[in-house]
């Protein structure tokens, strides 16, 4: 035990130093740990008054630690009472230090789309349901229609601009109707998948009855477009509704829902030709339709790799799960079949030479997608999927210029 005189001197120094800065812990510990002359284990002689004075001089000369904080005057004994890894919170802050990693881990907010900026709040869930904020699906549905209408044009002439506009509007409506049907049937699955749990039905923004009413509105507008076509096209167009309504169920029964989507999304390859010619030429439209199906198997398999972990959890199927580690081999084969079918269709339609350089550029774009996609990276899968609008644009440009010089 320290002598009483030493304790009194230490207490006096603590009172004096506490008003200015915290007492250095090394000096205090060395002082208090000095062996007592009364301790039987100690071999030190009895401390003299001169030794006490040396201790006080040491206390006065010991420099203030560089790590002392700005709040030292409010926490004069924090270095003694608190663990070394603990730093007292600022009295001006109400948040704990543990909240900082949580803030860093939180994902950045999604960028605002034109739907968020321009659509009224009451109509925003319906726009999201129709995927107006994600136009890539509309492009993928519209391109086979545009290919077919353009390839059906007279040699040396531009395609029918009215038909292009009608089919463009029809692509927006039919794609929106297909998404509405899909979300209605999958609302119990979407809330279990990370990418889809914010959709209007899964999040509760819309009720199923509201969705059915919106679906009726979309189909009514689509009927208005269909009635402007010839009778042959009306029958052919109406028959596609069977595919539209049954597609969302395929992922429950088969590992090939992407092939069924190809049958649905490329129906415009048949319908566009029929709208111009009032008939079907199998030598031209069947290779074009086959090319579209193979193209869909490429881009939608890449797209499905975003959800493969969630699909396994909820028990739905896809070609991403079917192909597994062999995905790139499979989609390379479908990509080659797509290009060959497009070449055959253009040859049978007597398209001019400009068609083939553009088709070669489209083949390069498709090969780039397949060779560089990181199937375990969701953002890269989505990036490659979205890039297919440029593949469709290259094929359309080739058909357009090929028809103008034929």
Automatic annotation (TrEMBL):
Membrane topology: Multi-pass membrane protein
Region: Disordered, residue numbers: 1-48
Swiss-Prot/TrEMBL cofactor(s): Mg(2+)
Subcellular localization, as worded in the UniProt entry: Membrane; Mitochondrion inner membrane
EC number: 2.5.1.39
PROSITE patterns: UBIA
Keyword field: Isoprene biosynthesis, Membrane, Mitochondrion, Mitochondrion inner membrane, Transferase, Transmembrane, Transmembrane helix, Ubiquinone biosynthesis
Stretches that traverse the bilayer: 136-158, 164-185, 205-226, 259-276, 288-305, 326-347, 385-405
GO molecular-function term, one example from the UniProt record: 4-hydroxybenzoate geranyltransferase activity
A Gene Ontology BP annotation from the UniProt entry: isoprenoid biosynthetic process
Main location: membrane
Record InterPro entries: HB_polyprenyltransferase-like (IPR006370), Prenyltransferase (IPR039653), UbiA_prenyltransferase (IPR000537), UbiA_prenylTrfase_CS (IPR030470), UbiA_sf (IPR044878)
Pathway: Cofactor biosynthesis; ubiquinone biosynthesis
Pfam families: UbiA
Primary role: Catalyzes the prenylation of para-hydroxybenzoate (PHB) with an all-trans polyprenyl group. Mediates the second step in the final reaction sequence of coenzyme Q (CoQ) biosynthesis, which is the condensation of the polyisoprenoid side chain with PHB, generating the first membrane-bound Q intermediate.
Family recorded in the similarity comment: Belongs to the UbiA prenyltransferase family.
Protein name: 4-hydroxybenzoate polyprenyltransferase, mitochondrial
Organism per entry: Setaria italica
Gene: LOC101784500
């Amino acid at each position: 035990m320290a002598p009483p005189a030493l304790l009194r001197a230490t207490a006096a120094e603590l009172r004096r130093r506490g008003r200015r800065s915290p007492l250095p812990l090394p000096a205090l510990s060395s002082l208090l740990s000095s062996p007592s002359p009364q301790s039987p284990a100690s071999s030190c002689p009895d401390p003299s008054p001169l030794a006490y004075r040396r201790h006080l001089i040491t206390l006065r000369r010991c420099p203030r630690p560089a790590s002392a904080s700005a709040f030292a005057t409010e926490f004069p004994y924090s270095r003694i009472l608190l663990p070394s890894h603990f730093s007292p919170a600022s009295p001006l802050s109400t948040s704990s230090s543990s909240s900082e990693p949580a803030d860093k881990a939180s994902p950045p907010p999604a960028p605002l789309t034109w739907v968020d900026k321009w659509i009224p709040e009451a109509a925003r869930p319906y726009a999201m349901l129709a995927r107006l904020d994600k136009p890539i699906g509309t492009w993928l549905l519209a391109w086979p229609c545009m290919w077919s209408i353009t390839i059906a044009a007279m040699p040396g002439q531009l395609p029918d601009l009215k038909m292009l506009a009608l089919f463009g509007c029809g692509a927006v409506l039919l794609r929106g109707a297909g998404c509405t049907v899909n979300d209605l049937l999958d609302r119990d699955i979407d809330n279990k998948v990370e990418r889809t749990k914010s959709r209007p039905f899964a999040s509760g923004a819309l009720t199923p009855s509201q969705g059915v009413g919106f679906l009726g509105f979309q189909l009514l507008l689509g009927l208005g477009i269909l009635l402007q076509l010839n009778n042959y096209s009306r029958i052919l167009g109406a028959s596609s509704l069977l595919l539209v309504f049954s597609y969302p169920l395929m992922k429950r029964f088969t590992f090939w829902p992407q092939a069924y989507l190809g049958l649905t999304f490329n129906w415009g390859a048949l319908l566009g030709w029929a709208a111009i010619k009032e008939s079907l030429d199998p030598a031209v439209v069947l290779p074009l339709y086959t090319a579209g199906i193979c193209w869909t198997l490429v881009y939608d398999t890449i797209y499905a790799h975003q959800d493969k972990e969630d699909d396994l959890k909820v028990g739905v199927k896809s070609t991403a799960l079917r192909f597994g580690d062999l995905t790139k081999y499979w989609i390379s084969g479908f990509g080659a079949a797509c290009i060959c079918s497009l070449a055959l269709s253009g040859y049978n339609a007597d398209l001019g030479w400009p068609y083939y350089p553009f088709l070669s550029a489209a083949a390069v774009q498709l090969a780039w997608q397949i060779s560089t996609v990181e199937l375990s990276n969701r953002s890269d899968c989505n990036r490659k999927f979205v890039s297919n609008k440029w593949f469709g644009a290259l094929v359309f440009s080739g058909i357009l210029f090929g028809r103008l010089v034929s």
